[in-house]
Design goal:
3 helices; three-stranded antiparallel β-sheet; globular; alpha+beta; 133 residues
């Protein structure tokens, strides 16, 4: 993950900072790796980033997720592949929602940068009457 961040001109520390500023100081934060052509590449961890069993999943590659008869969480990808992951269904729900929040925050920030004055409401001062001379 750290090598991918460096490749895209980012750092783990900066990506973590952006996530915390955007969605709060939480455990297992998703990270935005890059934002080519205005589309954020957000990766979500299945476990703690330091955990040996952690895998990072691209938020945009997920079509859905489900639980099978063995109580195993399955991630269904947009390319029709299915991957069993070693996390609970509720953890996958949480990570998916946090990634969605991060995506929304990025989009709002980008929109404000593209249209900086459209968000502020113009207020006009009352017209001042000129005194008669």
């Amino acid at each position: 993950m750290k090598k991918s961040l460096i490749f895209y001109g980012n750092s783990y520390k900066l990506a973590t900072f952006f996530s915390r500023e955007s969605i709060g100081h939480l455990h297992k934060l998703p990270l935005m790796i890059s934002h080519d052509f205005g589309v954020p590449l957000i990766m979500m961890p299945t476990l703690s980033a330091e955990s040996e069993g952690n895998i990072w999943i691209s938020f945009s590659a997920i079509d859905s997720y489900s639980i099978n008869s063995h109580n195993q969480c399955l991630v269904h990808f947009t390319n029709s592949q299915v991957l069993p992951v070693n996390v609970s269904y509720s953890t996958m729900c949480r990570q998916f929602v946090l990634s969605h929040f991060l995506t929304n925050r990025f989009q709002k920030t980008r929109d404000q940068m593209n249209h900086p004055f459209s968000q502020s409401k113009l207020t006009y001062l009352p017209t001042r009457k000129n005194p008669k001379r």
